[in-house]
Amino acid sequence: MSNSHKLVILHGNSHPELAKEIAHCLNTTCGDALVSKFANSETQVIINESVRDVDLYIVQPTCNPSVNDYLMELLVMVDGAKRASSHRVTAVVPFFGYARQSKKDKSRAPITCKLVANMMEAAGIDRVITIDLHSSQIQGFFNIPVENVYSEPLFVKYIKKKIKDDFVIISPGVGGVRRAKAISDKLSSELAIIHRPNKEMSLSLSASFSFDIETVLVGDVTNKVAIIIDDIADTCTTLRLAANALIKKGATKVYALVTHGVFSNNAIDIINESPITELVITDSIPNDHNKAKCPKLKIISVASVLAETMRRAHHGESISNIR
């Protein structure tokens, strides 16, 4: 199916390198837009080319170090594009900020992810493309299409190429079982699950390093390579807890494959001090500055997956089999 509307890619300041790589995959270049701040720190957007009647894709992960600034840049860019008569505006948000605030888990808690969804719709976004949403039900927060694509093909390809010994796929918590199982099924491998104590207990365990008594491993990792699969590496305490437990349970090595490398506070130091052999992340968030600090860190690109998703969305093709 052809699309008479020109495909145009713009980006803000959160990850211009990824936007340019996506554009390269699509045999095009990024459009000309200035995204900066006024003297009083308000967001300023100037789109320096016509976007009238185009199919516009704005690549902008709402990630650290300036989640709120990047979100505001996205909203202002969308408003400018809609007022300039763009045919359709798609927000390409590889890392969706506020995705972990998606439920009311205590009294008077906001559901901030829903608020962000409302803001994006109010700005005029027609479609959202993202990778590995923290919770799949977030798609239901929107009244517009949300294409949640997966890093599974990239991770499966990496494991097949890198790991030659017997291995087992590990979910570091019950919430990530579906993600880990999808990869273990494609690799015809065993699956194991780590059950961790609650947050308060985890903090006390972290101080005493007494993991073997409290961490429950469902599955066998003896004399095997353990491969942890997760969606977000933030403080990396979970990864350290899991890696220590797996080594104590007999794993020969521990690898971790995580989609989004957030790395808050001293997360890089925690990874360096952990028994993890290699931590593989995608470039959904810019992390080149952390590679020099962490020799265990390996970054693989999601540009090809996003580019193919955008191409299919542009031409009205199915996206379901990009897995």
UniProtKB/TrEMBL annotation:
Residues 7-124 form the Ribose-phosphate pyrophosphokinase N-terminal domain. One of its GO terms (cellular component) is ribose phosphate diphosphokinase complex. GO terms for molecular function: ATP binding; kinase activity; magnesium ion binding; ribose phosphate diphosphokinase activity. This is ribose-phosphate diphosphokinase. InterPro entries: Pribosyltran_N (IPR029099), PRTase-like (IPR029057), PRTase_dom (IPR000836), Rib-P_diPkinase (IPR005946). Pathway: Metabolic intermediate biosynthesis; 5-phospho-alpha-D-ribose 1-diphosphate biosynthesis; 5-phospho-alpha-D-ribose 1-diphosphate from D-ribose 5-phosphate (route I): step 1/1. Belongs to the ribose-phosphate pyrophosphokinase family. Its cofactor is Mg(2+). It comes from the Eukaryota. It catalyses: D-ribose 5-phosphate + ATP = 5-phospho-alpha-D-ribose 1-diphosphate + AMP + H(+). It is an enzyme of class 2 (transferase). Its EC number is 2.7.6.1. SUPFAM superfamilies: PRTase-like (SSF53271). It holds the Pfam family Pribosyltran_N. The lineage of its organism: Eukaryota, Amoebozoa, Evosea, Eumycetozoa, Dictyostelia. PANTHER family: RIBOSE-PHOSPHATE DIPHOSPHOKINASE FAMILY MEMBER, RIBOSE-PHOSPHATE PYROPHOSPHOKINASE 2.
